[in-house]
């Protein structure tokens, strides 16, 4: 049976220029690599698709996703205030051209979620995206992120599994399932999952980054530092690799090394955007709460892309009992970190493999 939405989509089908589509696919290839240089290449390809076909809505959705990733915690190459308004404008342009494009609704949802902190609006947009295109793996992946931040752990797990089912060879969707386990407090399963993309591509920075993070949370400090040093090399000194390495040093008791990274990051921040949230996380690892809260206050002013997940962030657990942390969660508008969404051992028992 054909639904009303499907009938509308069939009625709006238009001929696609093969050259524009080729440029779009190349853009998605580079977008999926998740590094600043490759994201800029992706934008160039999407813009090239629009030069060939100015009404190619998918290319606008691609541009939106590039700016969202550049401004989000995934890459953090641009300040959120510089990246997300561009992302929203491109997503809205895509929807002006094609109001039935599920990918564009997902693009707009991601910006509403990670920048506007419009939780109800983002939820509706994610659901609309998946209603229009239930086979869009990125839509399920991003909706899983949203559900994690909302404390809806089992629903997040289902969306992460669906994304992986739709795109089982994608490195991003593979690492995301491990991210879900990490944030649910199931460190062993997170580590097992993070090893899969590392085996798929040993030279991909993401698997080393997340595997190192998970080792740090489990207390495998030597393994964590080795993985994160590899990630830093592959990321060519990008801030988000350095910050996690600084956190691992702090957790390992290597305080001098952690402080050296803080100095490097604060120096680098004079030249480009560096998320204050990540510097705060290093101070948490060092056990210096006052400094951590000072940097978290800056992160709030920046609208850091990490804040939509602050209530379930593993690195910030030592702050949960401090009233200032609950105040921050309230300012962001999230459910309380102490609302009983995660069991006392950090694992949600009803999450099944």
Descriptive labels:
single chain; 353 residues; mainly alpha; 18 helices; 70% helix; globular
Layout of secondary structure:
Blueprint: H1 4-11, H2 18-31, H3 36-52, H4 57-71, H5 80-97, H6 102-116, H7 119-132, H8 137-149, H9 153-166, H10 171-184, H11 187-200, H12 205-218, H13 221-234, H14 239-251, H15 255-268, H16 276-286, H17 289-302, H18 323-332
Helix pairs in contact: 2-3, 2-4, 3-4, 4-5, 4-6, 5-6, 6-7, 6-8, 7-8, 8-9, 8-10, 9-10, 10-11, 10-12, 11-12, 12-13, 12-14, 13-14, 14-15, 14-16, 16-17, 17-18
Task: Provide structural commentary.
The chain is an all-alpha fold and 353 residues long. The protein has 18 helices and no strands. The protein has helices at residues 4-11, 18-31, 36-52, 57-71, 80-97, 102-116, 119-132, 137-149, 153-166, 171-184, 187-200, 205-218, 221-234, 239-251, 255-268, 276-286, 289-302, 323-332. Helix 11 packs antiparallel against helix 12 (205-218). The radius of gyration is 20 Å and the shape is globular. Residues 338-353 have low confidence and may be disordered.
Characterize the overall form. Answer: globular
Low-confidence stretches: 338-353
Q: Give the rounded overall mean pLDDT.
A: 92
Largest sheet: none
Radius of gyration: 20 Å
Distance between the termini: 32 Å
Structural class designation: mainly alpha
Task: Give the total of beta strands.
Answer: 0
**Proportion of beta-strand residues:** under 5%
How do the SSEs run, as a string of H and E? HHHHHHHHHHHHHHHHHH
Number of helices: 18
Quick synopsis:
This protein is mainly α and 353 residues long. The chain has helices spanning 4-11, 18-31, 36-52, 57-71, 80-97, 102-116, 119-132, 137-149, 153-166, 171-184, 187-200, 205-218, 221-234, 239-251, 255-268, 276-286, 289-302, 323-332.
